[in-house]
Amino acid sequence: MKKLLIIILAVISVAGCGTSSKTSGVKAGKHSYVIGFYNLENLFDTVHDEGKNDYQYLPDGQNQWTEAKYEKKVHNMAQVIAAMKQDNGVWHTILGVSEIENRHVLEDLVSDPQIADANFQIVHYDGPDRRGVDVALLYKPEQFKVLESKSIPFTFEPSSIDFSAWTQEEKDNFRTRDILMVRGMLDGDMVAAFVAHLPSRLGGKGADLRPRGAEIIYQNAMELEKQYPGIRIVVMGDMNDNPSDASMTTYMHGKEYIADMAREDFFSPLLRMLNEGYSSLFYQGSSNIYDIILVNHQFATAPDSGLKIIPIHQKGYYCRIFHKDFMTVQSGQYKGTPFRTFSNGAFVGGYSDHYPTYIVVSK
Question: Could you give the CA distance from residue 298 to residue 310 in angstroms, rounded to a whole number?
Answer without folding.
Answer: 13
